[in-house]
Design brief:
By secondary structure, this protein is mostly helical. It contains 11 helices and 2 strands. The protein is about 70% helix and about 5% strand. About 40% of the residues are buried.
């Protein structure tokens, strides 16, 4: 079935709970069209086999889908996709992020300690090839802005290129392990920022400034710049999480509505 591929492609590098992971994957099936209104979902046994999680994790994920009005559970018949609007899928995305709220907060805290050091080392050790990789990520952010696409995943990837520039495989793997959750945090920010286009432009400018400072080959300046960069992101993320917590989850996040998180200079 087509959705088997979608499941594998949607798996991230972090380790959310099994029910949350399964929920995110099934939301992915709805978003990419693998499952459409009226379609019957695979049986619990089939999902267990395809996703590789326990029956309990699958059952909890299906219950969450039903609470979100994405599926209809019919005893003896199975689970069927309801007639769904885009705002319901957006709302489900927000919920899946909120389920990992504590992990996101802890990752941000860890990043301030670890990535300050990666920026410092990168400023000393980066080669021309390393800087080219950083530039490619910046170009990717710019391209996403021009296309009206999310910059969350590419911005997270930029931080991985900095870690790679340390030429320390342990540090690179550590920062890469943050990538999935930080991408999700970025998506949440885009959903809850008053002016999403301005936010994206700020993302490009702030990452470009970080790149320029690392290129100056001053380890201490690079360390301080990264601390400031992540500290600013932390404030936005905490604000977005609070806004999402306060939103009426069952009512849905209306398209175009932003939860009041302000973007800085």
């Amino acid at each position: 079935m087509r959705f088997v591929k979608a499941v594998k492609e949607s798996e991230g590098s972090s380790s959310p709970t099994l029910s949350t992971q399964t929920l995110q994957q099934m939301i992915g099936w709805l978003k990419d069209g693998s499952l459409k209104s009226g379609d019957k979902l695979p049986s619990q046994s089939e999902i267990v086999e395809q996703v590789g999680v326990s029956r309990t994790g699958v059952r909890e994920a299906l219950q969450m889908m039903a609470v979100l009005s994405l599926i209809d559970i019919r005893p003896g018949l199975g689970c069927f996709v309801k007639s769904i609007s885009p705002e319901l899928v957006i709302n489900a995305d927000v919920l899946s992020i909120l389920l990992e709220k504590e992990a996101i907060v802890q990752v941000v805290e860890a990043r301030k300690i670890i990535e300050a050091s990666t920026a410092s080392l990168a400023s000393e050790r980066a080669t021309n090839e390393d800087f080219w990789r950083m530039e490619d990520s910046l170009t990717g952010i710019d391209r996403a802005i021009r296309r009206g696409e999310s910059v969350a995943a590419i911005a997270a990837e930029f931080h991985v290129t900095i870690a790679m520039a340390t030429h320390n495989t342990v540090l690179a793997k550590l920062v890469k392990s943050f990538q999935h959750l930080m991408s999700k945090a970025g998506v949440l920010l885009e959903l809850h920022t008053k002016d999403v286009e301005e936010f994206k432009k700020h993302e490009l400018a702030s990452h470009r400034q970080l790149y320029d400072i690392i290129r100056e080959r001053n380890p201490e300046n690079a360390r301080l710049a990264m601390i400031e960069h992540i500290g600013y992101s932390e404030a936005l993320i905490l604000g977005a999480l609070r806004a999402a917590d306060m939103a009426d989850v069952k009512g849905g996040v209306k398209p175009g509505h932003r939860g009041g998180v302000k973007v800085g200079q």
